[in-house]
Design brief:
By secondary structure, the chain is α+β, with helices and mostly antiparallel strands. It contains 12 helices and 17 strands.
């Protein structure tokens, strides 16, 4: 999508899987045998991102980071350290400390434009919901309920670490995939997608889908750093995030929340909030299409002092309820922007603050999501977050993933 912008030229590509680079630069055939033309025949190719910055850095102004979660921070930070504009996929980083540092360093780089890849925030549905929150239609917010059906059917979670070792495919640079994470033997299926449920490399459903669902509420309610977090998992594992879970995170008050603060309740893997107990009327989903939206990727319900708001992830308008009854509203179509091109336009114009998901904002939200995700490492206990040290004051084990120790030889400046 970035490459479709008229001001963009792709000059270098990097991937630990050589097959992807070959298709992009040389072409190939799809699953049905149809020829695929090369898209970037003149781009230099690399397996190691460090080599790409060293050898081709003078040829590019900006970098897109779309790797497994555990490599977001080291590559994105190298981009900032090298004076490059950076677009980084969500979650911004895997650990709380990494998210904090990316936000801080981005704020110090006055000429660099950043954007986290939460493209749903640019849809007409979420732009409308954002306006409702800005207008304060439900008053100060005291509770947020969020849920997603993932990881069900998307990637594995809740399993023990695979035993044994498989031969590394000749096209895969396994050590480069591991990157900053601890070394382990290769097993078929780890990559290109199933890594998301593994604690060493991903952030599970909370860290992944939470970015798409909680970005607008987090930004508009001006939430700070969590105070406590509590995780109740189903099938916890030392190697993977739980098969499903419910998580409760508490926050101190802000000008947009209740005076006592706010409680976030998260559900994934087939668990849902008690919609009736929250105060929603029967049939509020809006028929079969509405139910599909509710039970699919998920959504958010915000409980305010004046009413309740359902804020879907997309494909439906936000709805407001007062005293158990729907409020008649005519949704305002604010249009849709192109999240990727918004970043390119901001880079070209030198408008650092034009991006709605710039690192300074996204880093704070993803710090919270990391805390929620990693609470499953020490479940069944109220974990107290020490914001000064990016750690849980009562859980040394879970704290290890909030501020990770990189493998020898992988240290990055500012991390």
């Amino acid at each position: 999508e970035v490459s479709k912008h008229s001001m963009v030229e792709i000059v270098a590509l990097c991937d630990v899987d050589r097959r992807h680079l070959d298709v992009l630069t040389k072409g190939g055939k799809d699953d049905k045998g149809k020829a695929i033309a090369p898209r970037f025949a003149t781009a230099a190719t690399f397996a190691d991102w460090r080599e790409m910055f060293a050898k081709a850095g003078a040829k590019f102004d900006a970098v897109v980071v779309s790797t497994a979660d555990h490599m977001h921070a080291p590559i994105a930070m190298t981009g900032l350290n090298s004076g490059k504009h950076v677009y980084c996929q969500k979650p911004l980083a895997q650990g709380a400390w990494e998210n904090r540092r990316l936000a801080e360093v981005a704020a110090q780089k006055a000429s660099l434009v950043t954007q986290m890849g939460t493209q749903r925030i640019a849809t007409k549905w979420r732009r409308y919901g954002r306006k409702l929150l800005q207008d304060g239609v439900i008053g100060p917010v005291k509770e947020v309920h969020a849920w997603t059906n993932r990881p069900a059917g998307w990637w594995p979670q809740g399993n023990p670490r695979p035993q044994g070792e498989d031969k590394v495919p000749e096209f895969l640079s396994w050590d480069l995939f591991l990157g900053v994470s601890a070394s382990r033997p290769y097993k078929d299926g780890y990559t290109p997608f199933n890594w998301r449920g593994t604690i060493d490399w991903g952030t599970g459903a909370f860290g992944d889908m939470g970015c798409h669902m909680l970005d607008v509420p987090f930004y508009e309610l001006q939430l700070g750093r969590p105070l406590t977090v509590f995780c109740k998992p189903v099938k916890p594992s030392a190697d993977q995030f739980p098969e499903s879970e419910s998580v409760v995170v508490t926050y101190g008050p802000t000008p947009k929340t209740a005076k006592d603060g706010l409680t976030l309740k998260w559900y994934d893997g087939g668990q849902f909030p008690d919609f009736k107990a929250i105060g929603l009327p029967d049939g509020w989903e809006g028929g079969k299409e509405g139910q599909d939206v509710v039970k699919g990727d998920g959504g958010v319900i915000l409980v305010g002092e004046k009413g309740i708001m359902w804020f879907p992830i997309e494909h439906a308008w936000a709805r407001v309820f007062v005293d158990g009854k729907a409020v008649e509203m005519k949704p305002e179509d604010l249009g849709r922007s192109n999240h990727w091109h918004d970043w390119v336009d901001a880079c070209v114009a030198g408008k650092k603050d034009a991006c709605v998901s710039r690192f300074e904002k996204a880093g704070g939200m993803c710090e919270s999501l990391s805390i929620g995700a990693m609470s499953s490492i020490d479940p069944g206990k109220v974990l107290k977050y020490d914001a000064a040290t990016c750690s849980f004051s009562n859980s040394p084990e879970a704290s290890k993933m909030l501020k990770r120790t990189y493998r020898d030889g992988w240290k990055v400046e500012n991390l």
